[in-house]
Amino acid sequence: MSEPRPDDGYRAVMRACADAIGLHPPEIVLPTDHWAEINGITTHYLDWGNPHLPHLVLLHGGGLTAHTWDMAALLLRDRYHVIAPDQRGHGDSGWTPDQQAHIDPYDLMLTDTRIFLDHLAFDRMALCGMSMGALNAIRYASRHPGRLQALAIVDVGPRVMREGRLEMARFRRETETLSHFDDFLDRAIQFNPQRHPAHLRYSLLHSLKRVDSGWTWKQDLRGGTRDDDAVTAALPTEMEERARWMSADLRAIKIPTLLIRGEISNMLPPDAAAEVVELMDDCELATIPGAGHSVQGDNPVAFARTLDEFLSRQLG
Question: Can you list the residues of the chain whose pLDDT is less than 70?
């Protein structure tokens, strides 16, 4: 099921964002919205057109949406058929229903990814994921490599900085609901000062929704806004368990892989990124200047150029 996105000012907002950050795409093009029933939920995804080009599927990070890739997609769409879904519990996709609540969320998202890519039915493609999306891409690639020509993973590894995880959890908890949209923008500018305010505003327009008490995240935060003590206590065990299975999955991946790290990331330190390269059979590392954890948003021009340079070698 699909429909064109109504041009209700979205194009103008996109153009204003691109102009503010010095992005100069060939043209400002809107993606089309699509929906599919995937693993028990209605999944929303964006299609940037040009289906005759090599296929590139982008999986966003936790707390983000498919629109986190918009600025980079404007630069990539003339060379790739770009598809970006809202993963479960994010953006305009459905939330995990009660009957699936007992299942590990990463197991659910692995199944989501498999069924979604089956739905797209591309014979060959490249897969790129950031943070949570990278974890899903890693798990998929280690188990279902047949369709994948190349893999890109953004700012993730078995060992991540605990402080970055705590900062992100605190930001989500303290901004669960605010009275005004500009309250969110002010908090976002404080949290991510390297991002241009115009780009933060653009991202928030896609990440927030109105409620009776003001504005809140589209993200499913059920059980996800623990206080600092609860997060601090849970993190070591959670991170150790994730590190074990991620290391095993990274070793199992044989397809060409690019690890993209943000130069000033508070999640993935340089030595941890080097460990990922050592774990993998065929992996190269690229560092994006001036970018934090959300590399594709903090420096979309360098991100798109780096990803294109890698993919052009693998898909050509």
Answer: 1-8, 161-164, 223-236
Please state the φ and ψ torsions of residue 123, each to the nearest 5 degrees.
-65, -40
Q: Are 140 and 114 in contact (CB under 8 A)?
A: yes
- Between helices 270-279 and 228-252, what is the axis angle to 10°? 30
The amino acid occupying position 79 is R
Residues 248/113/61/71 CA torsion (nearest 10 deg): 130
Listed in sequence order, the DSSP H helices in the chain are 10-20, 70-76, 105-120, 132-143, 162-174, 181-191, 197-207, 228-252, 270-279, 295-298, 300-315
| Vertex 16 angle, CA 13 and 21, to 5° | 130
Tell me which architecture the domain covering 9-315 has in CATH: 3-Layer(aba) Sandwich (3.40)
Structure tokens at 272: 């941890």
- Euclidean distance between CA atoms 97 and 75, whole angstroms: 36
Rounded to an integer, what distance in angstroms lies between the CA atom of residue 312 and that of residue 316? 5
d(CA 301, CA 285) in angstroms, rounded, equals: 17
Other beta carbons less than 10 A from residue 76's beta carbon: 25
The total number of residues written for the chain in this structure: 316
> Residue 286 in 3-state DSSP?
strand
Bridging pattern class, strands 177-178 and 208-211: unpaired
Domain boundaries, the chain: 9-315
pLDDT digits (tens, 9 = 90+) for 244-289: 899 999 999 999 999 999 999 989 999 999 999 999 999 999 999 9
Of the candidates 137, 126, 123, the one whose C-alpha atom is nearest the C-alpha of residue 87 is 137
How far apart, in whole angstroms, are the C-alpha atoms of residue 310 and residue 106? Answer: 27
pTM, two decimal places? 0.91
